[in-house]
Amino acid sequence: MTKGDIGVIGLAVMGENLILNMESKGFTVACYNRTVSKVDRFIDGRAKGKHIIGCRSVEELCEQLESPRRVMLMIKAGKPVDDFIEVLLPHMTNGDVIIDGGNSNYHDTIRRARYVEGKGLRYIGTGVSGGEEGALTGPSIMPGGTAAAWPHVKPIFQAIAAKVADGTPCCDWVGSDGAGHFVKMVHNGIEYGDMQMICEAYFLMKHLLGMTASEMHSTFAAWNEGELDSYLIEITRDILGKLDDDTGQPMVEVILDTAGQKGTGKWTSQTALDLGTPAPTVAEAVFARFLSAIKEDRVQASRTLVGPDASYAGDREAFIEDIRRALYASKICSYAQGFQLLKFAAAEYGWDLKFGQIALLWREGCIIRAQFLGRIKEAFDDSPGLANLLLAPYFKKAIDESQASWRKVVAEAVIHGIPVPAFSSALAYYDGYRTARLPANLLQAQRDYFGAHTYERVDRPRGEFFHTNWTGTGGATAATTYNA
Questions:
Q1: What pTM does this model have?
Q2: Deepest of 17, 200, 213, 471, by most Cβ within 10 A of its Cβ?
């Protein structure tokens, strides 16, 4: 009997579709699910007649695999991953590979990699992006962990991954221990920002310009033909063109305005805080979801709290173009924040992250796939040590060309009471980054005044700290120095 090239545990939609993708590329796949009836249903349904082996236990799954065994977990993140690792270990031998393909926290992946390696096995934590469709037809895959495991999964992963125009797979080794899941986390954080910015563009068109869903559908269709060409713009176009079967209204208008989340955007924001690098646009996108969730509070507040009327008297077509430019400029800043976070993480965890290669991994297959990711790869190819995407010639020029429109959109939104937290936070980030002297000098004086936290001086070398006796009664004793 032919043995499996790889085993997959977990037959939810992502697991099933990845198995079918692997089989379609010539691999034999063994599968198992804790609820065994799902195995039977899959084997008798979508997997019928294919080179897919249904297993009724983890032991049977491992027996059905070629050596070294490769077992991929497509299960809920958290404790279930740890539990399945413990179940797998007695049935695996030195050199076998355990792969976590879920949205695990990278700290957990660092811990698990060390633990599994200590047992003589190899461990991979990989991001898989592209949703249900991507898993079946070609996702973006971001593997990291035990480097010696990569040659054993590379042929499978690169075969099933999405491909760019020249055939290069959107899958390559990212780095050690938790690097793969970290890159996927940042991808998801950028995704949060992208989605929020698109929603703000929609909200401005609807409430400030009075555009219909049909008009917005046409606008997003046109935008998807230019520099904003991306999966999220494409699906927004489709969403705005969809009518509800029951009411005949635009589908988007019958959906309740409360957003969910699975935590990766929050992890991205928390990690930026931990590493001391600014990622305000992702954070604002997360907060916007939180604000949407308190629907009843907002409905009550809307009956009491007042603001200006939202009615734009200027040239509507010109302002639509302003919104497009504002969206593009904000998007650039959001990605700049994401790649800066990757840079800080690489330094913190000793990962040799290839930023241009990461941009290529996201070029096709994933949720944030977009035309301009090719520009990001070019920017890092031209300057591997690039401090910030905003400094790359292409993106600097794009911001220069969009800046007047961007400022106008944010100003008009504020004047007319339209919330645009992602647009405005991206602009504030840009203005802060281009400012040589920020008001943090006053902030440090305040901290030194009330807590003797010390400060550095403009006329002395960096790293020398001083304290002023501001009141004349505080003495000369200072607290410890600060971390920015």
A1: 0.93
A2: 200
